[in-house]
Amino acid sequence: MPTGLEHSIDMDIAHLIHRAGGVARTSDIIDAGVSASRVSSAVRSGLLERPSRGWIALADADPALKRAAEAGVVLTCVTAAARRGLWDVRPRQVHVGLAPNAKPRRALRAHHHWCKPIVPRHPKDLVDPIENVLAIAADCQTYENALAIWESALRLQAVTLETLRTLPLTPKGRQLIDQVRPFADAGTESIIFARLRWLDLPMQRQAWVLGHRVDLLIGDRLVIQVDGGHHVDRQRASDNEHDARLRIAGYHTIRVTYWQLMHDWHTVERLILDAIARGLHLA
Residue 211 and residue 224: Cα distance in Å, rounded? Predict the structure, then answer.
């Protein structure tokens, strides 16, 4: 059983690793002043684990980070985007990044991205820098998913449009540079805009109409609103009041849910096209 002093030292090690995200390179901890023997003692006590040679982790650290350290990869693309709070496409597999021709140290059930990163990866990185995340997502994902991820990154100020413009992006990345809007409110708005671009009609995202922003304004009068899970109680009452004011002022509102947008797009699109066919988008 560790003495009080040993327990205090172990807690200092745990604090250092916690600050590093729960998983850290052993050399970084030693460079911070912790002896190799103290690290080994913490491993024997069960406080730390060794995911792979050169790495240590808290026993309760994020399993995804421990697997990345174990396999010698970084979390990237849609997986890293979701971890950063960006638009989550809910992938079936974890997306990981490796240098060209590199091999994971251990087999990993994942979607592998073998590519040279735009921003060099530090040896201690287990999650790709945001620039790499967006660049890889641009080529990996559908246009609408990539657009939603990029716009959520701009909205959350994870990166700036000016920074993205200076990067050596692929053609798909350059296309996104021309289309992204820094103040898009949600991924659903990005997706519905991308799906309706073929209409070749004037469309404004986050248009200010009668004192409120609307998700999408088509033409002069057709308002499209996508409700998320927060559209309940007081928010629902506010939305209903605004919808009524829009009708009185001659606007036409189509309000759909997230589920309808993602799983019943055919019905949503038909409603919008029927409204346009009747000229409800015109003043």
Answer: 16
